[in-house]
Specification:
Blueprint: H1 2-11, H2 13-32, H3 37-74, H4 89-142, H5 147-173, E1 182-185, H6 186-204, E2 207-210, E3 216-219, H7 221-238, E4 243-248, E5 253-258, H8 278-284, H9 291-302, E6 305-311, E7 315-321
Parallel strand pairs: 2-4
Antiparallel strand pairs: 1-3, 4-5, 5-7, 6-7
Helix pairs in contact: 2-3, 4-5, 5-9, 6-7, 7-9
Length: 330
């Protein structure tokens, strides 16, 4: 309250100073006419009391207006049009300026959302259309059993993954996504991701270690699969020999460990940033800087914590915390 009163005094400081100057002038003029001291003092006291009453009344209205502004600021998204009644011409003009800016912003936002939706619709159609020639090329390449064909199939698989990443990028950037939370068997999700990347493990002769688990998790199957697939994709991409190990602890921590090239210590804090490739990613010219960024974004929306431990030259361990507090219905 004291800080608010000081703000009020500061706002009307020139009026208060002017009132004090006028009081001094009147007192000086009365003294020149040699009026009785009691009369001068009485006039000064009356003016002072009147001034104090006016200040307190003004402060009361100032508090009311301040609370209205505070409420408006806290509820700006739902109360943008409920401005307090203006008391001055300046306040009225400022409110008109704000209202005009609000309309311009609303029109700009609507235009942006329309253009964004058009882009999403275009890329969605493009991804679905591009899958047809990709499938045709896969069938052609699978018709012959040669090393060259296997290499081309692997590159075609990467193209398919990158096209799918386009849709994931747009969907995760939307305010509302197609998340469906249910209890799922984690083993089924892991096995589906492993089967998808099995040809890549075989091609690079990388051993996969995984013992089936009987664990149920509350999550969205599609987006958890996306996270696991991205981590497996990186594991295959940056592991040239050795193995990839998938394990699940009793407290539902999913760990995917590889024996790949690892991550430089200075890069670890930034690997989930958008577009960040790191030293090893740049050196190998294989990283887009989007995969782990989308993993982090998806895990945040699923309320799953994701973190990484890595030692350069020895491999990386990605941990996904899937346990949730049990909710009781009262």
């Amino acid at each position: 309250m004291i800080k608010l009163f000081l703000k009020y005094i500061y706002q009307y400081r020139y009026t208060i100073i002017l009132f004090a100057v006028f009081s001094v002038i009147f007192a000086f003029v009365f003294s020149l006419y040699r009026l009785e001291t009691e009369a001068v003092l009485y006039s000064c006291i009356l003016c002072t009391v009147t001034g104090i009453i006016a200040v307190l009344n003004g402060f009361r209205r100032f508090i009311k207006k301040s609370r209205e502004r505070e409420y408006l600021m806290k509820n700006i998204l739902i109360s943008a049009e409920k401005f307090p009644e203006p008391e001055t011409v300046a306040e009225s003009e400022y409110q008109e300026i704000i209202e005009k800016l609000r309309r311009i912003n609303s029109e700009t936002e609507t235009k942006f959302q329309n253009e964004r939706q058009e882009s999403i619709d275009y890329y969605t159609a493009w991804v679905h259309q591009i899958k047809t020639p990709i499938s045709a090329m896969q069938m052609i390449l699978q018709s012959e059993d040669t090393p060259e064909h296997y290499e081309l199939l692997a590159e075609l698989f990467r193209i398919e993954q990158y096209t799918g990443m386009v849709l994931s990028y747009f969907r995760l950037s939307e305010n509302s996504s197609d998340f469906v939370f249910r209890n799922y068997e984690l083993n089924d999700i892991i096995k589906k991701a492993v089967r998808k990347y099995a040809p890549q493990f075989i091609r690079k002769k990388i051993k996969l270690n995984y013992n089936p688990v009987s664990v149920t998790v509350l999550t969205d199957e599609k987006w958890l699969s996306f996270i696991i697939e991205q981590i497996l994709s990186n594991a295959v991409k940056y592991t040239y020999s050795g193995s990839v190990t998938i394990s699940v602890s009793q407290n539902k921590i999913l760990r995917i460990a590889d024996t790949g090239i690892g991550i430089a210590p200075e890069d670890i804090p930034r690997i989930f940033e958008k577009g960040f490739t790191g030293y090893n990613g740049r050196a190998n010219s294989k990283s887009t800087g989007l995969g782990l960024y989308l993993c982090k974004k998806a895990s945040d929306k699923l309320s799953h914590k994701i973190c990484v431990e890595s030692e350069e030259g020895k491999g990386s361990i990605f941990s996904l915390y899937l346990e949730r507090d049990k909710l009781e219905i009262e």
